Amino acid sequence: MTSQSWRALRVKKYQFSLRLFLFLNLASSLFSMLSPMHHILAITVPLVMITVISAGLLLGHWAWAERKINIPAISILFGCLWAWHVATKTPLMHQPNFSYLVIALLSVLFVGAIAFSNNIIAFTLHSLPVLVTCLLLSDGDQWLRMLYCFALPVIGITIQSVIQKRYDNFAHGLMYKLLEERQTLNDLSMLDPLTGLYNRRGLQNRLETLLSLDASGHYVLLLDIDYFKAYNDHYGHMMGDQALIQVSAAIRNAVRSRDIVTRYGGEEFMVVLTSTTPEMALETAERIRQRVYDLKISHMFNHSVATNVTVSIGLAPLLGEDMEGALEQADKALYEAKHLGRNNILTSEALQKA
Ligand SMILES: Nc1nc2c(ncn2[C@@H]2O[C@H](COP(=O)(O)OP(=O)(O)OP(=O)(O)O)[C@@H](O)[C@H]2O)c(=O)[nH]1
């Protein structure tokens, strides 16, 4: 679930509540016309208005569901119309009729409680006009019963609203935590756990963004630690890991933050130097080579190259989006750089000229 689908769920809940409210009002108004209490047919103006408005809004809302209708405004409008209807019909009964008033009040409370079980404001706005009308039209000794009929759902809906709000807050918090964790996992899945550099997946992701913005002026460096097998064999795998971590940091620190540094294989790294010139690319490759050399990680088995850890580098331009071609060229340059004595840099152009 995303924050959008959460919002969509809330909108759906809102729409459902509104449609239910309109439907119940329409049904109540039609029922009042077809089966009037005490056989006193009172097709009053407000009753007709309730029927027409609820039917119209129901149809309109079905057709244009995205249009928002203000629930509190609709609630008070219908509440006032029902109050007007009760006030018009009661005098037609010749004598004060308590059962009519109570049933009218209960009907309005019932509709509000069903449609607005989580919305105390809408419930109150809908019920209050009818309650006040019923209180005014009835004897004082019936007030307590009527107030009780109103207070009971108000208390129930208030408690229900508080519980629902807490549940919503909890679910909302949980959803954001899950989204955050999903993002963290996604980020982690793009990083190499030992060095913290991008892995191939991370590289792919960064490359897509890079190439979609600007597909020219990029260079690819392939770097390989010299005689690393011998290092591992003599100093052990743990020391080998430590050397990899140090070399990774040196590479990262020798380039700009917008360049992409990837652990491409075991002791092989790949750097994409973005939006640069051939001279700058070569300068950066030289800086990396020197920084790794300057780490002075002792490597007595770096056969005649040095007594510390060194890297060889192959450099090639990235032409258009042809990453495979650039890698092939850089790999050939790296192979030659190794062949020519290691701890050095060879460019694919130099290879072509040779
Ligand atoms: N410690 C450690 N070693 C690794 C890791 N990944 C690869 N290696 C080692 O890196 C070494 C790579 O050796 P080779 O590919 O033979 O190359 P090399 O010895 O560096 O020789 P050249 O590349 O020709 O200079 C192997 O011994 C691998 O076991 C790693 O994550 N940690």
Automatic annotation (TrEMBL):
Its cofactor is Mg(2+). Pathway: Purine metabolism; 3',5'-cyclic di-GMP biosynthesis. Its EC number is 2.7.7.65. It catalyses: 2 GTP = 3',3'-c-di-GMP + 2 diphosphate. Gene3D superfamilies: 3.30.70.270. The chain crosses the membrane at residues 16-34, 40-62, 69-86, 98-116, 144-163. One of its GO terms (biological process) is negative regulation of bacterial-type flagellum-dependent cell motility. Pfam families: GGDEF. Residues 216-350 form the GGDEF domain. GO terms for molecular function: diguanylate cyclase activity; GTP binding. Keywords: GTP-binding, Membrane, Nucleotide-binding, Nucleotidyltransferase, Transferase, Transmembrane, Transmembrane helix. It comes from the Bacteria. GO terms for cellular component: plasma membrane. This is diguanylate cyclase. It comes from Scandinavium lactucae. The lineage of its organism: Bacteria, Pseudomonadati, Pseudomonadota, Gammaproteobacteria, Enterobacterales.
